[in-house]
Amino acid sequence: MAYLAIGHPLSIGKVKTRVRSLSHKALLEALEKMSIYLYIENTKKDIVEFALPELSLSSARARMNRKEFRIEVEAHEIQRILEWNYREWVYESRRDDEVCGSPQDELAEAGYPELYEVIMNQELLELVVGGYLFEKLVSKFSKPSELTKYWWDQVLSCSYSKGKVIINGVCYSTPMSFAGVLGAKS
Q: How far apart are the first and last CA of the chain?
């Protein structure tokens, strides 16, 4: 397991060493091998420029620029990246179902299928990857930093096509002088 400068684990092939930091170029090369792509307003961007804000964007939006984003991830990468999180979430959800005495959402009603089956089902894909686990997915490859230019706000849709999971949503961009308010480390 290699560790990125931004502090998140990333499995790169068979590398099993601990790396204190990777250059921006090395980070981008590693992410490129993972088949994760970010598009802002249909223009390809570096995925490390996208992050989840540590604080809500609600009061900051008036001073920011609204943008549409698309993240494309190979379905096998979604499964590799989120499998453990999904299993953990299913375990907790089953416990909730027991306490409540009935299934609590569409995933429970579907019998908690395997993640690869979720990816192939539009409704469940949106619920799980576009909803419940989206923040887990993004946090695996990006964290607020001096590289952040786009701040996630909401997921609008999540779909599967030709071996890829495609996530569409809204993000906001901001001048660097304002980035510290949202959690970027300068």
A: 27
CB 142 within 8 A of CB 6: yes
- Contact of 21 with 11, CB cutoff 8 Å: no
Contact predicate 79/97, CB 8 Å: no
Tokens standing for residue 92: 């907790």
Q: pLDDT for 49-77, tens place per residue?
A: 998 887 666 667 778 899 999 999 999 99
Contact status, residue 155 vs residue 133, Cβ threshold 8 Å: no
**β-bridge pairing 36-40 and 43-45:** antiparallel
Q: Tell me the two tokens of residue 112.
A: 């908690």
Angle of helix 134-141 relative to helix 75-100, nearest 10 degrees, comes to 140
Closest of 83, 71, 1 to residue 36, by C-alpha: 71
List phi, psi (to 5°) of 159.
-145, 170
Sort strands 150-161 and 50-51 into parallel, antiparallel or unpaired: parallel
Give the highest mean pLDDT range of 7-16, 17-26, 59-68, 72-81: 72-81
Check whether 79 has a pLDDT greater than 60.
yes
What pLDDT sits at residue 165? 97
